[in-house]
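TASK: fixed-backbone design
INPUT:
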């Protein structure tokens, strides 16, 4: 692996942290307008909301079921979707925690491990709770991908912060 100066490592670390913060915020914000998003996705896929979901198969079937469920829930019990508002909020709060890593990477490297644990936790959550809730297996794999792909920038951050820490330690002694 290439050798970097402290300044280069700090730039790489901060760019990765900014990327991760943006990814968390964007994924969080998308949990607010779920009904609108599902209506748009259904339209793109050519799903007619007036037809029963059993009219479709595969991914279209699943999206039609989810769209029908969200639409009916929103009409009859809109307070249930308050849970997804909290999901969105939690993504944003977690993103805020990464500001500490941006400011002082060596001192706050624990945030990397917190993020890695959260990413790893996505996999059993998606596989176990998804099965209990009747989520199709292929969709649970898509959910697992968020954890798998989330680990990649966090692992790179781990490598870069470890190198930065070693540089700082050697220059202090």
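OUTPUT:
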């Amino acid at each position: 692996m290439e050798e970097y100066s402290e300044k280069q490592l700090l730039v790489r670390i901060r760019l990765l942290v900014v990327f991760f913060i943006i990814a968390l915020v964007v994924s969080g914000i998308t949990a607010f307008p779920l009904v609108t998003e599902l209506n748009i996705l259904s339209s793109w896929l050519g799903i007619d909301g007036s037809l029963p979901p059993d009219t479709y198969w595969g991914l279209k079937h699943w999206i039609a079921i989810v769209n029908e469920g969200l639409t009916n829930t929103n009409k009859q019990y809109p307070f249930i979707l308050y849970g997804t508002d909290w999901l969105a909020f939690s993504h944003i709060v977690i993103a805020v925690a990464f500001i500490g890593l941006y400011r002082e990477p060596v001192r706050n490297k624990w945030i990397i491990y917190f993020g890695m644990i959260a990413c790893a936790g996505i996999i059993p959550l998606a596989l176990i709770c998804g099965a209990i809730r009747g989520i199709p297996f292929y969709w649970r794999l898509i959910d697992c991908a968020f954890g798998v792909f989330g680990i990649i920038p966090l692992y790179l951050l781990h490598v870069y912060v470890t190198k930065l820490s070693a540089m700082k330690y050697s220059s202090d002694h």
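COMMENT: The longest helix spans residues 137-172.
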